[in-house]
Amino acid sequence: MQKRTTEESEFSLPKAVIKPLVLDFKSRPPSQEQDRKFITALARGLEVLRAFQSRVGPMSNKELSEAIGVPKPTITRLTYTLMQLGYLRQTGRNGKYVLGPGVLSLGYPLLSGSRIRHVAHDHMAELAKHGGCTVALASRDQHSMVFIDEYCGNTATTLRVDVGARIEMAKSAIGRAYMAGIPDAERELLFTELSKVYQDEWPDLQARILNAIQQVRERGFCLVDREWRKSTRTVAAPLIAPDGSTVMAMSCGGPTFSVSLESLEQDLGPRLVHICQTDSVFLND
């Protein structure tokens, strides 16, 4: 039995395949506790659930307290309540917490009721198979993008994403395409928030974001080459509802050894733009 385990580890998938996409939880937006309409207790409970997106594996009350900056006695009451409601459960060995099935049930109505997800899926699959790449659809989640659909057209690719996984908005093609699609005033407000998150890194990062936005204006899509991950390159385009009320983004990419810059810029990028323009009508409720 031990030998089998060793053999399996030797032939395990590359880390890039199985590594979940998580975002540093410290990048969450500033607290709104000064707002009289803001219910702090509810926000803290939701922050406990979101903390599990910042790392992989079970978390203790102490770890949760450190992750979200809330006193441990408060965390203890929150985890107890969330466990009673089915949103958390305790592991048998050390009493740490993991997400419970109740969390999954919260997301299902969103996915099942998304018209754009159902309409775009076949088009995403066609493009992914054509280019041997991974095509993904994402929506904004605070300072990140959360994937709501994905299709991989190459089983050997090292670029795989899961529905519900998040990726940094500022450093990804799909996030920059989203920023290109939102109104100027909203983008400026977002830039202000991101400058506080990235601090000294922000001036250089902002310049790259502005370059990506200009690319979208000129050709409909932007390119991020070996920046988000050194071994990947991706193009992305925004989906904008006809009335401008909703903006999402779609990306197409893969590992550098299998997806060339030429194919992304001359073939896959324009095809992606066509899909986004065609399907964006379904963003309106």
Question: What does this 3D model show about the protein?
Answer:
The chain is of the alpha+beta class. The protein folds into two domains: 2-106, Arc Repressor Mutant, subunit A, CATH 1.10.10.10; 113-283, GAF domain (Beta-Lactamase, 2-Layer Sandwich). It is 48% helix and 17% strand. The chain is built from eleven helices and eight strands. A six-stranded antiparallel β-sheet has the order 5-4-3-8-7-6. A two-stranded antiparallel sheet has the order 1-2. Helix 9 (184-198) packs antiparallel against helix 10 (202-219). The longest helix has 19 residues, at 261-279. The N and C termini lie far apart (54 Å).
Compose a concise summary of this entry.
This protein has 285 residues and is α+β, with helices and mostly antiparallel strands. The protein is built from 11 helices and 8 strands.
List keywords for this structure.
single chain; 285 residues; Beta-Lactamase; 2 domains; six-stranded antiparallel beta sheet; two-stranded antiparallel ribbon; 48% helix; globular; disordered N terminus
Structural topology:
Blueprint (H helix, E strand, L loop, with lengths): L1 H9 L4 H4 L21 H12 L9 H8 L3 H13 L3 E3 L6 E3 L1 H12 L2 H17 L2 E8 L2 E9 L13 E3 L4 H9 L2 H15 L3 H18 L2 E4 L6 E9 L6 E9 L5 H19 L6
Antiparallel strand pairs: 1-2, 3-4, 3-8, 4-5, 6-7, 7-8
Helix content: 40-55%
Gap from first CA to last CA = 54 Å
What's the overall geometry? globular
Question: Which sheet architecture does the biggest sheet show?
Answer: 6 strands, antiparallel
CATH topology of the largest domain: Beta-Lactamase
Task: Just give the CATH class of the largest domain.
Answer: Alpha Beta
Instruction: Supply the CATH superfamily name of the largest domain.
Output: GAF domain
Let me know the number of strands: 8
| CATH architecture level-2 label of the largest domain | 2-Layer Sandwich
Strand order of the largest sheet: 5-4-3-8-7-6
Order of helices and strands: HHHHHEEHHEEEHHHEEEH
Q: Total helix count? A: 11
